[in-house]
Amino acid sequence: IKLFADGAVLEEMISAYKEGVVKGFTTNPSLMKKAGITDYVSFAKEVITHIPDLPISFEVFTDNFDQMIREAEEIASWGDNVYVKIPITNSYGELSIPLIKDLSKKAVKLNVTAILTLEQVQQVVDAFAPGTHNIVSVFAGRIADTGIDPIPTMKKAAEICHQKPNTELLWASSRELLNIFQAEECNCDIITCTPDILRKLSNVGKDLTQLSLETVQMFSKDSKDLG
Ligand code: E4P
Fold first, then answer.
1. Residue 48's closest CA among 58, 39, 36?
2. ipTM, 2 decimals?
3. Does 85 participate in catalysis according to the annotation?
4. What Gene Ontology molecular function terms does this protein carry (predicted)?
5. What pLDDT digit, counting tens, does each position of 212-222 carry?
């Protein structure tokens, strides 16, 4: 499985790139807002100057499909490593499938995002033009947030995606390190994780008795600080 970094903090993205742990990047408007970005285009172009050779997804901002086409073409022109993120619907709930077909025919590399159902996965995979490279982002964490185990959905989504060459399934909205192993078990091609989850990679293989001791030591230290 390929690890991607999910975020919009330039310094964190550059250090993840330099460390070589991740093989690509995802961003979204909410992550950019959280990072305090006010000029989307300048931010994106700066990111690409630092990260010119790994896949990176930038999302369209508009709600209107005619404008979205133009915005998507502009985003695609920023670099060969850029995937244009298209939400599965606009914010009025209108399906983006006609737009996806259009852009895919023009060979724009797409990352279709905010997918939560297998019906959406099938519609998106059917819409991709033959010979194009695309990512299907299924929000496993948001499925889990409703109390439903996302694993059966992700396994089936992988089967659907892999019917079409060069279509990669991405496990999105990761919530914990365990998700990396679950995504691998589901045959996902990619999982994107926030820096706080990526930092926990150093825990893999850790002795649990030692971890128990460290936990007690943390409680002990903090209780002293309570006075
Ligand atoms: C992926 O590309 C998305 O940006 C991200 O994983 C969404 O995460 P969230 O559901 O926690 O907002």
1. 58
2. 0.98
3. yes
4. transaldolase activity
5. 999 999 999 99
